Description:
By secondary structure, this protein is an alpha/beta fold. The protein has seven domains: 10-117, MutS, DNA mismatch repair protein, domain I (3-Layer(aba) Sandwich), CATH 3.40.1170; 125-269, MutS, connector domain (Nucleotidyltransferase, domain 5); 300-408 and 549-576, MutS, DNA mismatch repair protein, Chain A, domain 3, CATH 1.10.1420.10; 439-541, MutS, DNA mismatch repair protein, Chain A, domain 3, CATH 1.10.1420.10; 582-795, P-loop containing nucleotide triphosphate hydrolases (Rossmann fold), CATH 3.40.50; 798-829; 848-879, no CATH class. The protein is built from 30 helices and 27 strands. The chain has a seven-stranded mixed sheet, sandwiched between helices. A six-stranded mixed sheet has the order 3-4-2-1-5-6, with helices on both faces. A six-stranded mixed sheet has the order 11-10-7-8-9-12, sandwiched between helices. The N and C termini lie far apart (109 Å). Keywords: ATP-binding, DNA damage, DNA repair, DNA-binding, Nucleotide-binding. InterPro entries: DNA_mismatch_repair_MutS, DNA_mismatch_repair_MutS-lik_N, DNA_mismatch_repair_MutS/MSH, DNA_mismatch_repair_MutS_C, DNA_mismatch_repair_MutS_clamp, DNA_mismatch_repair_MutS_core, DNA_mismatch_repair_MutS_N, DNA_mismatch_repair_MutS_sf. It holds the Pfam family MutS_V.
Amino acid sequence: MSSGKSTVTPMMAQYLEIKSGYEDALLFYRMGDFYELFFDDAKAAAEALDIALTKRGKHDGGDIPMCGVPVHAAEGYLLTLIRKGFRVAVCEQMESPAEAKKRGAKSVVKRDVVRLVTPGTLTEESLLEARRHNFLAAYALVRDAAALAWVDISTGAFHVMALPQVRLGPELARLAPSEVLVSEAQEIELANVVADAGAALTALGRGSFDSSLAADRVAEVFGVASLDAFGTFERAELSAMGALVDYLKITQKGKLPLLRPPQKEASGGVMQIDAATRRNLELTAALSGGRAGSLLACIDRTVTAGGARLLERRLSSPSRDLAEINARLEAVGFSLDETEFRSALREALRKVPDIDRALSRLSLDRGGPRDLTAVRNALEQAAEIGARHDDTALPARLHDAVARLSGHDALLDLLDQALVAEPPLLARDGGFIAPGYDEDLDEARTLRDEGRGVIARMQQDYVTETGINSLKIKHNNVLGYFIECTATHADKMHALSERFIHRQTTANQVRFTTVELSELETRILNAGNRALEIEKRLFAALRQAVLDAAGPLGDLARALSELDVSSALAELAAQEDWTRPVVDNSRMFHVETGRHPVVEAALKREGDPFVANDCDLNDADGASAIWLLTGPNMAGKSTFLRQNALIAVLAQMGAFVPAEKAHIGLVSQLFSRVGASDDLARGRSTFMVEMVETAAILNQADDRALVILDEIGRGTATYDGLSIAWATLEHLHDVNRCRGLFATHYHEMTSLAGRMAGVENATVAVKEWQNEVIFLHEVKKGAADRSYGVQVAQLAGLPKVVVGRAREILDALEQGEREGGKQKAVIDDLPLFSAMAAAPAPVAAAEPSEAEARLRELHPDELSPREALQVIYELKGLV
């Protein structure tokens, strides 16, 4: 009997050895058709995946926890684990059990990790969002310089930029990477910045960031002696790029993805938008989380995955290059005017697969026949688009895109001849090479397929020979081909034992074979295997032909995305009646009848109109231009603030805008402090978060910035809040000298319009009727005389007794103010709510008067003038 301690089995010894190299990852250990996990990995995975936790054998006297997932369904489980913050090391069998047995009966199948799956290194179609990038970023600090590099291995995009640490948060917010690499020395310092961006943090040793080795690492990827052809890179930039390459080698086990040459970006080339502003404006994600309700979801009319990713990049990074902006606008304008061109182009683009991600999978040897057909189908559509519009008088940007669609005829012909129309998912399934492409394959297939017919004829011969009509020739993986009949005919078959050789007896069936059947089986099996091996060889050749053309194919993919975005933005402008903005180097900000695109779309679905408003932040003498906006809550102040910020973003990304007219002087920075939120995890109250964000604006905004602020100072006492809001507005006007919209409930601040040249009062119009407020959502020049807070509270459903008490207190306070600041005395004289006389029971609504009852019965449209006059006399007599 066992003492409870067991010797480690060879298989478990192998597992523990492999696991020791991947302590921070779950190990998917391949055992036949399952990936199995053991010990703590099994406990963590079973809980995360909600699957059964079992046990297998013993270790150190205790049961070994175990769970497993089927190999064929592994991608779904991988996605769940990655989203829950795990990393997974995929350990595959490197040989078959039969090959292992050749080394000895108890030999363990060789296994090794073939890939480390992390959030930033996903390539599978099922693990990625087709319409979004999946960036892996690296931040490097070399002495006093720092840089950020990022790559999407699913598309090959590779970028780098010099970046001081103070700008890291906003850039991560722009890129929204899935994973960020940092040096171990910076892990603690940068943890919060990376967490705020919603990314996973991975710390690497200093060797990964060694700038002296980085240039050679990156050059090796592109097969060049030096990086001079790609530009001049500083040491920090090389360090960040080198860390990315090193990490990809680690996670991909030496199989590097297909990367484009690194593009160096200038930090001043795009509008700077910090994380708080992106969140407040809901550019690419709604405050509630997810894409729905964001500006991106509202404007996206793209029909290709590549176009959708390009649209998101442009929305996240509005340009500050006037030539670039106007080239984009010209392309959109042409597509808008040429309806037939736009319609035909979009119809063709709908059939374009995702070339970039197909190329990435093929480069990492994770692709299949469908990736080859994706390239072929994309080439077909590109050729059709290019031929149709080759002689069209296109604007320069569209002309360049169309020109890049041609020149791929040889590759298209090769793939068209080689591939069937709809191939299987995996190369090992075979059947994806078209008949007539390869003589050897056709010959093997003929033998394989005719063998089936020969089997059928042989079965009929055996039926005739034995007289057993139920006799069948069948096949399974254990016995191969065999002759089967029911047990009732066994004696007859045994009597022919010289001809029919017994193989197996089951409960109801008896199985035999013959010499000729065995020989035929050999020929058929060899033909099938030979055909499959030929197809695999041809797949490898076609894959290499595609990868050899990766550079031009990448250019083609970008051209198709450019065409998609231009036509999609034109489609948006046509559908929503948007107009081309004027964008220049001035400090103008003039919008006529502007609308909030997301709110307008929501109202349209409900059948309600959107009230458009003008905004004019122009200054004649170079001074600040700020509107001080007053008015009640619920009147549309926040919508007005946001819509003008969004119009600036849309204009500089190269899109038309929701307005009748817009003239936007380049905006260098966009800041938004709208809405309330806290950060309890860091001990920050709502007011503290508001002050932190306001401080960031006042410390960074330049004279080209656009700032929108809503209710600064509301989270503290009245006089504290007023003083903070007052001082903030003065600083924006006198120091930052920027353009801005400043919404407030502190009506005392409206006096600043008379004291500051660049401040102008504006208000949201309302009407009051029978103690109720009606929102007109119309912004006009002037100041609000009150906030209508009590009326809004009544609309919200506060108890009538509370609303009535609020009116009483408000009237008393306003009277004290009119009497020379006697509010404190008034407050002291006010009886406490609990000390007031018990509130009378609500008075039941009076019965309608006779006159009111008479009015309800009338139908004005049915009365003649004489009858109407008679009714007036009758009602007069009732009053």
